[in-house]
Amino acid sequence: MFERIAPEQHDTLPDIPEPAENPALFGHLETRRMLAQAYRSGKMHHALLLAGPQGIGKATLAYHLANHIFTHPDPREAPEDLVAIDTASQSFRLLAQGAHPGFLHLTRPRNDREKKFKTVITVDEIRRVSRFLGMTTQEGGFRVILVDPADDMNTNAANALLKSLEEPPRRTLFILTTHSLGRLLPTIRSRCQTIKLQPLPDQDLFTVLQGIGADMPEASEERALLAARSSGSVRNAVLLTQFGGLEIEQALSGVLGQPKLNMTDVFRLADAASGRDRQIQFDLFNRLALDRIAERARLAGEEGDTCTAASLAELHEDMRTQLIETETYNLDRRQHIIGTISTLHTKLGGMPQAL
Question: Which parts of the sequence belong to the AAA+ ATPase domain (predicted)?
């Protein structure tokens, strides 16, 4: 029976380990070894930017690297590959509980008054960096700051982080994760070593799913379909198999593939993804919608249609802003979904739809 010890995050899934408490790390073998060797040699960049799709293990890798550093505070004595997690160690327990004195995790904060998480990483969160760096470390050890994901910083927060990145104290490591490099300020990207992580191979994906007890299709054809639609992301696969993701994806594909919107189908989908107890389904719908726009923009760019690509990129940002406003001001989620479907049908209607 899985027992959570990590604090709940804005994107926590029931019965799925948080990166902070996950002792298993799959994929990214070359990157893991490169980071371990950079630490051992004393040539670790002061700011790492781990880039790649959501759910492929970026934050988990960040925690494993932090555990490696805290387990071997003297880089010269550290092994050439990341050490396996010892779940009985004090370092692991403190990291998992968010209580390690050498580690600061910055993500969307919880609004206790409204009993929900904020939609962005605020400047107040980033200001915690100065207070954290002002504290004395244990025996001069490393301090690690994780911003996860850095995409969620608003403009003020991003500008505040820049000041810390420009003049980092000695033996301080910043780790930023990003699902989309284009969302970050160029000035932040320029101060980091960007490491692009690839989606997990199918074998690793299925191994992780089996390890967490996820429902797995038995037929090889269904497994192949799940792998294709998951795009190498464990989070995608879990959402698709355990939280109605496949049904939402199929319903969205159905309404967008019609020459004229069938409002009965639209209302049915809006009801299924907007209920009070359907936060995960609402998030999943919006990710599917935004992913469609991003994919079409990518294809347009590859075909040399820069005008369409730019227009779709602007649409992606507009719809992302609308989503943030819906969450921030408690707007009607059902109407948000209906409006999103209408916009997608107008802009993408009649084109092939895929996860």
Answer: 44-200
